[in-house]
Amino acid sequence: MKLAWLRSLETSHQDCVWACTWLPPTTGKTSGILLTGSLDETVKLWNPEDLTLIRTNTGHCLGVISVAAHPSGKIAASASIDSFVRVFDVESNNTIATLEAPPSEVWQMEFDPRGTTLAVAGGSSASLKLWDTAEWKLIATLSIPQPEGSKPSDKGTNKKFVLSVAWSPSGRQLACGSMDGSISVFDVQRAKFLHHLEGHTMPVRSLAYSPIDPRVLVSGSDDERIHMYDAEGKTLFSSMSGHSSWVLSVDVSPDGAAIASGSSDRTVKLWDPKMRAAVQTMTNHTDQVWGVKFEATGGGVRGCLLASVSDDKSISLYNYS
Questions:
Q1: Radius of gyration of the chain from Cα atoms?
Q2: pTM above 0.90, yes or no
């Protein structure tokens, strides 16, 4: 497994780029579209073949902190510090829905694999909000339970500030990472909290399930470590270190054989989970790397693109093989 740098775009946005994802190819298209979100309040759509700009989307009045792609490739969503989630039509940029939340209650978000539900990490509400994508109504709030023995007056809820979210490949479970280093796992159908996954000592800013083994959940934390959990068996079975600062983003390759990570140490690393070590370090960026994302190819195929975005305003693309 290796990464080969393909191209970079130095000033892709006017401010720090905090989020990226891939829109799957629509009918008749062979490649997907790269989506990026920036503190310059815009979402941009890029052609990955040459990183040419397809369109710039506006609509937020503060920085964009998360972008999510619907499995159809026709719809996407952007979340902003302005506490709004904007759902838009990719082809026309028309706003489909605007989802509002109280201040500091909109962070990362992700569509479920079937595209019927959008999960939004609820920040200071210590919960996940689930939105139905047919009518864009709030259909459930999954709250992280208070630790046993705590009093309602305890200010412990702030420690459960929810930063990150990930759907299991089946769509039956949801995981979220919190400021206190804990990860919470929910049964979505029953809207029931299942268990915590412990091991991190600082905020968990990124989560990703393996597309090949649905039990495996990967996490990245400010404690500079990447963890691999059996999300169903509640066990931490691998802890990897190698970054010299916060791990801001993690993703699992479509073949399940590699993990990519982005960090405040300005690097992108490729990890071999079997070796429990980093096998490659990319140093294209000059500031912290907020997002790494593999293009989903489906079918467990090796050979796809990886994108990374940074506070240095740039995008980098790599070939994973």
A1: 18
A2: yes
The contacts of residue 310 (CB under 8 Å, 6+ apart) are 16, 17, 262, 266, 285, 286, 287, 288, 289, 290, 316
How many C-beta neighbours within 10 Å does residue 248 have? 25
pLDDT tens track for 183-217: 999 999 999 999 999 999 999 999 999 999 999 99
Backbone angles phi, psi at 120, to 5 degrees: -120, 125
Residue 87 near residue 132, CB atoms below 8 Å: no
Residue 1, number of CB atoms within 10 A of its CB? 14
- Which token pair is 292? 């790494």
Contact between residue 318 and residue 4 where contact means Cβ atoms under 8 Å apart: yes
What is the band of 32 on the pLDDT scale with cuts at 50, 70, 90? confident
Helix (H, G, I), strand (E, B) or coil at 120: strand
Q: Where are the beta strands (DSSP E) in 200-296?
A: 204-209, 216-221, 225-230, 235-241, 247-252, 259-263, 268-272, 277-282, 289-294
* Residues in the chain, total: 321
Q: Please enumerate in sequence order all residues whose Cβ is within 8 A of that of 214, keeping only pairs 6 or more positions apart, or say none.
A: 168, 169, 170
